[in-house]
Structures are given as structure tokens and as C-alpha cells.
Prior knowledge:
This protein is α/β, with parallel strands linked by helices. The chain has 9 helices and 11 strands.
Amino acid sequence: MASRRDAALAFPVGPITLVGMVPLHDLTAYCDERTQRSLYSDAPGAFNGLQLANHRGVSKIGAAVDVGVVPFRAAVAAGVDFLIVHHGMFWDQPRALTGPHFDRLATLIAGGCALYSSHLPLDGHPELGNNAILARQLGLEPTLPFLVRDGQPIGWAAASTLRRDSVRAALEGAYPRVTALEYGSAAPARIAFCSGSGNSAVPELLRSGIDTLVTGELREEWFPVAQDYGLNLYLCGHYATEVHGVQALAADVARRFGLPWTFLRTENPL
């Protein structure tokens, strides 16, 4: 089981022969295809894909969960010129490019760092996605689509023979803060996974007949629902449950193009 410091699974990239500069278009096209970007409907502001270009191509890949001046400065300082994020820049556009919004873009542009964002594709992907990786952290195989939106699963569920106390212990070993609401089966037959916010997942849980959910965070109102309907809800942190997909994609791209990559951790406690 992964340590609390490094909750993501290891993403082996194999031996890499560094090839120098790779055209930005080649990496972008590969990421679009690998994440199946075109299949996912997302919030309009998510704007999945390349959000900011650069002029010189790519020599080093970075991964981060969120945009922001701090991770952008860290990326530039680390020599990253292609940064993959889960939560991109354009959720509430249009907006004036002033203050912190200008600083974000100016940091990337001055550092020659392109930005690629992948939101729901990196939640639902059956191999690289946050939820598939969450299931595999517990030794489970994510074969059951969960939270299907426009024909694509955003979450995953898995058949399980684990007892509830084993699930809790495994999660507590992998994540620094776990809130466990245990009112469901002591040995759940199926476990669902929804990284980040699980507020839309609980109603789906009730409809699907699954009584156990691993997620990032929930609103307070779901506590009495868990009691009334007999649910096991495990909250492991929004950020902590979404470090996996960006790392998996970065490692995959690095292997494909023979480039180094790094994860830019921001110690987000939420």
C-alpha cells in the first residue's frame, strides 16, 4: 500500500532514452487520443486539452492537480515546458487578465511552459483515470461503470470481498486524512469510486444498489443520508484523490516520447 506521503500508485515508465525537444503538437495530439478527450462532455469552462501553447516544443513534462501561480512557478523552476493539470484555468471565463490571473499566464509564458488540462477524461479513463486507480489501490478491478454521463463513465465500481475495516485501514494507510461514515455493509459486495467531489455520486449510489463509496469530499447533508440509507462513505480529500490521473498521464507521455517528468505537489490539505 502506498505511503501517506505518496498516495498515488507508482507509475513505472521503464527505461527512457532522452530524445531532447519534442514538438508540442505531437504531445498534445497524443494526450487527446490517449485520454479519449473527444468522448467526454464536461463543464463548458473545463476546456479540456491544450490551454496555453509555447514556441519551443517540449523537453520535460510536469503534472499538477491545480493551476495557480505557486505550481506554475515551481514548474518553470523545475524546467517543465509541458504541464498537465486536472483543474484548468478557464472555469468562469471570460475574465480580465489582471492580478493573479495575469500572473498565472505571465509565469507560464515567460517560462515557455505550455499547459494541458484534462478534467473528466482523467476521472473516468479505465486505465489512467483517478477512479480506476483508486480501485486498484485497494486491489480491486474497476469493471463496473459508475456515474455514466453522456454514455461515458466518470466513476467506476468494483466487486469486492474486502471487509469494511480492511477498506478503512487501507485508505488510512494511503491518505493523510480519512473520514469514515460506516453505516452500510460490514462486507460490501461492491465498492464505488468517485474522486474529488462525491456530491453527485451519493444519489447514484442509492440508485445503483451499492452501499459503499470512496470519494474525496462531501457536503454535510450526506451524513444523515448515510445513516438513514445504510451507507459506507469514505472521504479521503479532494486533492489527495486526484493526484493519480495527472501522474499516470505524465508517466505515459514520458514513456511514449522519451522525456523526463515530475510531479509538482502543492500540499493542498483540502
